[in-house]
Q: What sequence folds into this?
């Protein structure tokens, strides 16, 4: 029986949009939801990076395009992006800790969008995600990238868990998969 729901699919396919729609639907039914999603940051029509946005509305940089390849301090990079690990951890870790320490009788939904290369530079994030997945009072609704290149340990661990239902989001199904995802999350809460 699934306890958690994850969406996977190529970049830009609509995983975050679906997560936001599910979040709105759950919140309108008074289901306790917390967590975060990532959002593109564009300037003049060009992607400049990504922000982390918590469900409660706090926002901070996850990464930005960097043209400077001669980095003096230790930098975490994914392609052209430099990851702001301090900003990411400052926003996300307290949210994940709070979700895990709730004392509600009702299962909470924890949004984790996404568990990808940028986020996985943080060892503290990896530990917090594992804790959240083992917390019996929490249902995770998250996103993971499609396998590409070197496998990401935590992503493969999640993909192979028996208590995780994975939805593959595609152009063909993204506009009619919302109810299935909602039903799966609701079933995890029982």
A:
């Amino acid at each position: 029986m699934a306890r958690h729901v994850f969406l996977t699919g190529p970049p830009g396919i609509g995983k975050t949009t679906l997560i936001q729609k599910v979040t709105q639907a759950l919140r309108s039914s008074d289901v306790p939801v917390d967590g975060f999603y990532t959002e593109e940051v564009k300037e003049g029509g060009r992607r400049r990076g990504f922000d982390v946005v918590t469900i409660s509305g706090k926002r901070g940089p996850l990464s930005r395009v960097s043209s400077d390849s001669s980095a003096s301090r230790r930098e975490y990079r994914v392609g052209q992006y430099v990851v702001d690990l301090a900003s990411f951890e400052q926003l996300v870790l307290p949210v994940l800790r709070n979700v895990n320490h709730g004392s509600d009788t009702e299962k909470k939904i924890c949004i984790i969008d996404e568990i990808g290369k940028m986020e996985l530079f943080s060892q503290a994030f990896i530990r917090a995600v594992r804790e959240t997945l083992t917390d019996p009072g929490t249902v995770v609704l998250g996103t993971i990238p499609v396998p590409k290149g070197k496998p990401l340990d935590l992503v493969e661990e999640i993909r192979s868990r028996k208590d995780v239902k994975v939805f593959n989001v595609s152009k063909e199904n993204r506009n009619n998969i919302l109810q299935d995802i909602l039903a799966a999350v609701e079933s995890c809460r029982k």
